[in-house]
Amino acid sequence: MIEVEGLTKKFGNITAVDNISFKVEKGEVVGFLGPNGAGKTTTMRILTCFLPADSGKCRIAGYDIVNQSVEVRKELGYLPENTPLYQDMSVEGFLKYVAEIRGFKGAEQKNRIEKMIDICGLENVVKMDISELSKGYRQRVGLAQAMIHDPQILILDEPTSGLDPNQIIEIRSLIKNIGKEKTIILSTHILSEAEATCGRVIIIDRGKLIADGSLDKVRALSAGENIHRIKIRGDRAEIENQLKSLPGAKEFKLTAEEKGLFSYEIYAEQDMDLGEEIFRTAVRNNFVLSELYRERRTLEDVFTKLTRGEA
């Protein structure tokens, strides 16, 4: 649905987007991540035909963004970071205005407006002026205008920016539901948002693409270790003898000891889960295993290391 090849954009001596390439397939919900100033918004403005690239190619639903920009705009919906709404219009009036711009009239226009009101949960505010709405409801109106023409692709730039925790949860839930039927690129620097809504992430930093893949694949890029932590009671020498023989365990170290209860960190091969084998070993040797968990690297850990050049 989206094909980007060698996209580059400069502002004077600053390279905002530096030769990035990626593809987004139909039905994917992709998190487009990066710190502030990484080039996320610039990339989105190029994809949505608001800003020309200096070089590179991009196709949206098979259409070239330069030579077929009208067709591109028909296939996508765009929600900028600062939602552009007419404050003095009612919700219903604004959606009617957007529908008319998109060329819908009569019964089809009415049906599309009613569908957006239902999907975006605007029933209780439809007669209110936009100036009277909370930030969360304004984001809902912004999503409604982006989807009113039933595009295949949605490009959302920081859709939960400035919302309170409850509003963030509501908008995330709405995006997840929409993602069942649409292809979505979601720009954000809030990593929990990407983990909650996206199946894949693309990370850029200082204009360069530095990671692309599923959440698990990107987490694996961290330079951190695959660690299992246990608390176990028994003969220390025998415990450590058994830990040495665990398949896939590279090393272990004792981190604490209290009244015969030993705490260990077990360093495993990348992506190996030793939980079941550790449990069986404890049972087989009559050790008392009081705690066992695998330390999972978070997207935040990976993001920090990648954008600081530590991974």
User: For the record, what CATH class of the largest domain applies?
Assistant: Alpha Beta
Overall radius of gyration: 25 Å
* Count of distinct structural domains: 2
Strand content: 25-35%
- Going by helix content, strand content and strand pairing, the class is alpha/beta
What is the number of helices? Answer: 11
Short description:
The chain is of the alpha/beta class and 311 residues long. Helices cover 34% and strands 31% of the residues.
Describe what this molecule looks like in 3D.
This protein has 311 residues and is an alpha/beta fold. The protein has 2 domains: 2-219, P-loop containing nucleotide triphosphate hydrolases (Rossmann fold); 226-301, Alpha-Beta Plaits (2-Layer Sandwich), CATH 3.30.70.3100. It has helices at residues 40-47, 69-75, 91-101, 106-119, 135-147, 165-178, 191-197, 215-219, 236-244, 275-284, 299-307; strands at residues 2-11, 14-24, 29-33, 55-60, 63-64, 76-79, 153-157, 183-188, 200-205, 208-214, 226-233, 249-258, 261-268, 288-295. The chain is elongated. The mean pLDDT is 89.
